[in-house]
Amino acid sequence: MSAKIDFGKTALDYVIHREGFPPALLIRLKPYGVGIVGQRVLDLGTGTGTLARQLAQVGAEVIGMDIAEPLLKQARILDIEAKVFVNYKLGNAENIPLQDETQDIIIVGQCWHWFNPEQAGSECFRVLRNGGTMVICHFDWLPLPGNVVEATENLILKHNPKWNMSGGSGIYPRWLKDLAKSGFVGIETFSFDLNIPYTHERWCGRIRASAGVSASLAKERVHEFDEEHQELLAKNFPQDPLLIPHRVWAVIARKLRSYK
């Protein structure tokens, strides 16, 4: 997309309607040694801290980093409500403001595609301790023939033809190559599918908080899209709540550097 993406513009919808990864992700990651009491974890692209909070709740020492201060502001409010602490920092993946080999885990949820992979990969390798674990994960809706996701994506493209993230499968083989080129080894992946219930109101809010709508369109165009989206749902998908198919996908890799 050529338009500048700014998720800070979506902060209110983001905090209400983007709930983040399901708890099942951390259950699946635990056998890989991710999400352990006392671990030092960096959550890159933390947004409103949905993944960082889950890790803090299991006892990890979490730094949440993002380039959007409005999202971090909302994250701090949510942490108070959840009675957990995450150390939030402004920063970007291409120039991580942390010392070498200080983190046990780096996790990147739903945002590796926004990074420069060579620079981000090099920085992640630098910041991870030897033997540390790198995780890139996604939680994506699935457009299937005739379903509400496909119809919603077509509407986004009508209002924002430059949006280039439609038609996804929730699988990202390119990230494996990115990690290997950065020096990571022992690369593994897993995925599982879930149906997530959304009321019409929440689905509209979730879509407004996406890259193709509020993060890139002017306010008046967001309003036009939202009105048409509501009409589309009422006419063609009247069931409420909607069951939205999603796929959770993760790639796990290790930093194992020999010292000579």
TrEMBL record:
Q: Does the keyword Transferase apply?
A: yes
GO terms of biological process kind = methylation
Keyword terms of this UniProt record: Methyltransferase, Transferase
SUPFAM superfamilies found in the cross-reference section: S-adenosyl-L-methionine-dependent methyltransferases
Q: Which GO terms describe its molecular function?
A: S-adenosylmethionine-dependent methyltransferase activity
User: PANTHER family from the xrefs?
Assistant: METHYLTRANSF_11 DOMAIN-CONTAINING PROTEIN (PTHR44942), METHYLTRANSFERASE TYPE 11 DOMAIN-CONTAINING PROTEIN (PTHR44942:SF4)
Family assignment from sequence similarity: Belongs to the methyltransferase superfamily.
- The protein's name is SAM-dependent methyltransferase
Highest classification ranks of the organism: Bacteria, Pseudomonadati, Pseudomonadota, Gammaproteobacteria, Enterobacterales
